[in-house]
Design goal:
Radius of gyration: 24 Å
Strand order of the largest sheet: 1-9-3-7-6
Number of domains: 1
Largest sheet: 5 strands, antiparallel
CATH class: Mainly Beta
Shape: elongated
Number of strands: 9
Order of helices and strands: HEEHEEEEEHEE
Number of helices: 3
């Protein structure tokens, strides 16, 4: 019994060494899928005069350190949703008829075009103090996240309430990454 086990172990070792000697043959490939990773912007201040039918808020995510490890790998990051939550001044997003979220590179010299990544028009469904906006377009967001910052333009259309209010904004992506170890 011991002799068979030793022979089997030697065979596996020889096979492993043989595979590592093959040119171009990967030794190990690891693939991982992250269900969701979100960038959060807390306490975004909104001020609206009376009678506005639309309002645009812009802000910058300038700390992308949570995403940089994925962005440096052979990763695919796809925008999936944005969520806004009222934190003061209003209790509901029931006034919203449409929301458009445009993502741009935070680098003014970037050649990346602005993309409408999240969109709801006529089908926006607020739940209490939160509004979830689905991704309008798939596609890899990695080019936008490899820089130092991302600019977000958030456009609301509807009977915008007058006054000041704050909200938290989450921009969420799903990630798929692979890493290959070669001999």
């Amino acid at each position: 019994m011991t002799h068979r086990m030793t022979t089997l172990s030697k065979s596996v070792l020889v096979l492993g060494i043989g595979l590592t000697m093959l040119p171009g043959c990967p030794l190990l490939t690891i693939e991982a899928e992250v269900a969701e990773v979100c960038l959060s912007y807390p306490n975004l201040q909104v001020t609206s005069p009376t009678g506005q039918r639309s309002i645009k808020q812009s802000f910058v995510f300038d700390d992308l350190s949570a995403i940089h490890d994925l962005a440096q790998q052979d990763a695919d990051l796809e925008f999936v949703r944005a969520t806004v939550r009222a934190t003061s001044g209003i209790t509901s997003f029931g006034f919203v008829e449409a929301v458009h979220v445009v993502v741009s590179s935070g680098d003014p010299g970037s050649a990346l075009p602005p993309l409408t990544m999240y969109d709801c028009t006529g089908d926006c469904v607020p739940e209490g103090n939160a509004l979830e906006i689905p991704a309008a377009a798939g596609g890899n967001a990695i080019a936008y996240l490899r820089g130092d910052s991302v600019l977000i333009d958030l456009d609301f259309v509807g009977e915008i309430p007058a006054g000041s209010w704050t909200m938290d904004v989450d921009v969420c992506m799903k990630a798929r990454a692979s890493y290959t170890v070669r001999p």
